[in-house]
């Protein structure tokens, strides 16, 4: 089949993105001091890989084009197949919001999907399936680079990590032979690569590096093989992760795993809610949280290792208190996670943009704070609370959260599994400051709970919305001081759990 016709919208495509390694027009957010409202996202540019030009098409462009062709040759089952496949891919993408999906269609070119665009070679005679890994690698690279590097130059580290992810995904999902998996490597290789990555993480990318795939010199492909190893180690280190959820983490998350050592620190056995049940409070009992945690690797109360890290989390915003919280966090140059409500975002776009631009992570706390456990149908939970909220966030900041915090911490076993099947992870907390109970809890109570029960890789529950949060704001300074005095590092839940964003 031929797909040599330009879809109509692409004639106005982003001409600024001429370089193979630039995707600045994909809706990325450069940091700036003043939040700005999002503008219309331009269609992405063509991607050139291994001498083949891939062009982005929307689902409706392709369906229309393929339908036209079908009228001309009614018995063309390839095209019927393609329409069906595109519809399935389109639905799957809408559900999972994975960074990309790939598809190898019999007799047709490789198709890769990203942010609603299907990439096909301009010249259908190219045997693009052979280049699928490179195509995916390029899509991952473009996305990772536009979000993680804040306008800095592309580095060798970016390229190697993206190539390794592409190899792993293609290999595991599509049974594509991976030429780099059987390269033997030793400790010296790892040490050399670690040095190279550390040194080049801030230096511009050079296509002639001997570590890159396609280089005919010594060590060709070695960088890919070693990076695959690092990704696999990270996957083991972070229970509940998968290649998709890891693929958008920053490079720094993988550097500790560029080592030959098989001795990874094992996850801790005891995962517990530290703040004790208070019988007169209407809360999910600790026993229930522990039970769910044991049953589901995708349900978290806190981090699973013993690093001196702590994750502050703020629920029920954004609200009038959000800016005050952001100011205190900025003063100490620390990052936190905000579980926002879809209904609160509508009139507070600048707050969401400020959270994002200050480097904090945004999580999903449902649309209208409905007790998830009372929603019988999975599809209702998904449509009315989760994905609509994710869509709003995606439109504003360019990624959809992968972390869901159920309102009141209430969620059923089957719902945790359902969300996991759609790429979401469920995260509650290990320390409840009970700042939500404004009638009885004062500033000192909040400070006491947050500091008295401190432990490595703690997740602390607080609120920047949903009521009068002046006590929370007042307590925050002392809580930060306490953990800093104890030598803790403040991290987002993305860093703590190894679960990246959906882009
Ligand atoms: Zn809440």
TrEMBL record:
<dbReference type="GO" id="GO:0005975">
    <property type="term" value="P:carbohydrate metabolic process"/>
</dbReference>
<dbReference type="GO" id="GO:0016810">
    <property type="term" value="F:hydrolase activity, acting on carbon-nitrogen (but not peptide) bonds"/>
</dbReference>
<dbReference type="InterPro" id="IPR050248">
    <property type="entry name" value="Polysacc_deacetylase_ArnD"/>
</dbReference>
<dbReference type="GO" id="GO:0016020">
    <property type="term" value="C:membrane"/>
</dbReference>
<feature type="domain" description="NodB homology">
    <location>
        <begin position="308"/>
        <end position="491"/>
    </location>
</feature>
<feature type="signal peptide">
    <location>
        <begin position="1"/>
        <end position="24"/>
    </location>
</feature>
<keyword id="KW-0479">Metal-binding</keyword>
<dbReference type="Pfam" id="PF01522">
    <property type="entry name" value="Polysacc_deac_1"/>
</dbReference>
<protein>
    <recommendedName>
        <fullName>NodB homology domain-containing protein</fullName>
    </recommendedName>
</protein>
<dbReference type="InterPro" id="IPR002509">
    <property type="entry name" value="NODB_dom"/>
</dbReference>
<keyword id="KW-0378">Hydrolase</keyword>
<keyword id="KW-0732">Signal</keyword>
<dbReference type="GO" id="GO:0046872">
    <property type="term" value="F:metal ion binding"/>
</dbReference>
<dbReference type="InterPro" id="IPR011330">
    <property type="entry name" value="Glyco_hydro/deAcase_b/a-brl"/>
</dbReference>
């Amino acid at each position: 089949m031929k797909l040599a016709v330009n879809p109509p919208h692409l004639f106005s495509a982003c001409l600024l993105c001429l370089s193979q390694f630039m995707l600045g027009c994909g809706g990325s957010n450069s940091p700036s001091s003043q939040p700005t409202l999002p503008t219309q996202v331009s269609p992405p540019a063509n991607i050139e890989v291994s001498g083949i030009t891939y062009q982005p098409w929307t689902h409706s462009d392709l369906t229309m084009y393929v339908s036209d062709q079908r009228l001309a040759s009614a018995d063309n089952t390839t095209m019927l197949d393609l329409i069906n496949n595109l519809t399935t891919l389109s639905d799957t993408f809408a559900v999972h919001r994975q960074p990309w999906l790939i598809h190898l269609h019999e007799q047709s070119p490789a198709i890769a999907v990203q942010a609603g665009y299907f990439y096909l070679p301009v010249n259908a005679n190219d045997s693009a399936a052979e280049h699928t890994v490179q195509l995916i690698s390029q899509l991952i690279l473009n996305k990772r680079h536009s979000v993680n590097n804040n306008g800095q130059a592309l580095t060798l580290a970016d390229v190697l990590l993206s190539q390794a992810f592409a190899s792993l995904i293609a290999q595991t999902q599509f049974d594509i032979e991976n030429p780099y998996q059987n390269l033997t490597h030793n400790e010296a290789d790892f040490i050399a690569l670690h040095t190279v990555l550390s040194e080049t993480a801030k230096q511009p990318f050079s296509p002639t590096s001997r570590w890159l795939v396609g280089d005919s010199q010594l060590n060709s492909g070695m960088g890919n093989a070693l990076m695959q190893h690092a990704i696999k180690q990270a996957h083991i280190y972070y229970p509940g992760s998968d290649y998709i959820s890891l693929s958008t983490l920053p490079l720094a998350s993988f550097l500790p795993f560029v080592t030959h050592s098989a001795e990874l620190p094992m996850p801790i056995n005891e995962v517990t809610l530290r703040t004790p049940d208070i019988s007169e409070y209407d809360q999910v009992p600790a026993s229930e949280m522990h039970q769910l945690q044991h049953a589901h690797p995708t349900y978290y109360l806190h981090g699973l290792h013993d690093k001196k890290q702590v994750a502050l989390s703020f629920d029920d915003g954004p609200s009038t208190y959000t800016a005050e919280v952001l100011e205190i966090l900025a003063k100490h140059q620390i990052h936190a996670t905000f579980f926002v409500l879809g209904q609160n975002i509508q009139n507070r776009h600048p707050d969401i943009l400020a959270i994002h631009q200050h480097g904090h992570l945004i999580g999903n706390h449902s649309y209208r704070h409905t007790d998830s456990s009372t929603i019988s149908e999975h599809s209702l939970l998904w449509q009315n609370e989760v994905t609509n909220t994710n869509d709003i966030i995606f439109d504003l900041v360019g990624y959809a959260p992968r972390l869901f915090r159920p309102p009141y911490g209430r969620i059923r076993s089957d719902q945790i599994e359902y969300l996991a099947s759609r790429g979401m992870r469920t995260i509650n907390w290990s320390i409840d400051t009970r700042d939500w109970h404004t009638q009885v809890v004062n500033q000192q109570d909040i400070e006491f709970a947050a500091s008295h029960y401190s432990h490595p890789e703690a997740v602390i529950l607080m609120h920047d919305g949903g009521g009068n949060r002046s006590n929370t704001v007042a307590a925050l300074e002392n809580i930060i001081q306490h953990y800093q005095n104890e030598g803790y590092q403040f991290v987002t839940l993305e860093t703590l759990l190894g679960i990246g964003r959906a882009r």
